[in-house]
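[step 3/7] fold_predict: job queued, chain A
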Amino acid sequence: MYVPFDDMPKDARIWVYQADRPFEEQEKVWIISKLVAFCNQWNTHGAEMPSSFDIRLDQFIILSVDESKLGASGCSIDSSVRIIREIEVKLNLNLLDSGKVAYMDGENVRVAFLPEIKNHVSAGSLKSTSKMFNPSVNKVSDLDEQWLIEANNSWLKKYFAH
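[step 4/7] structure written:
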């Protein structure tokens, strides 16, 4: 059962998927229609779950489920990964590969795949004070409090040690 994202409780569970490039406007329209339809039928063991999504910075898809009455089962989580994979394949995106880091470079989101991180540091676009997106957030409230953190306060700090 689709619920507007702003109406999701602060303790609702989230999964954040970061794309390796920004979504184009027509891609966002298609993603929104796919995810509204998905949320309207997303269930666990036949019971509807209040669920939602948000697209942030034209590059992040955030899925959310209110588990206060019924937790998401393995099967329901698998179905969410299938819809993300469908989006990934249809739009030629990289959403599911966890081997990448997204960070802010001025007003722009940049993505570094793990083997490229040293190059981003050497080039000066990724600094110890750069705001990076923390992939371990798991509640709606984390988006305000823990999603954007300084690179030096993350596992990336090893790239800035002298």
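[step 5/7] annotate
The beta strands are 13-18, 43-44, 47-48, 51-56, 60-65, 100-105, 108-113, 131-133, 148-150.
The longest strand covers residues 13-18.
exit 0
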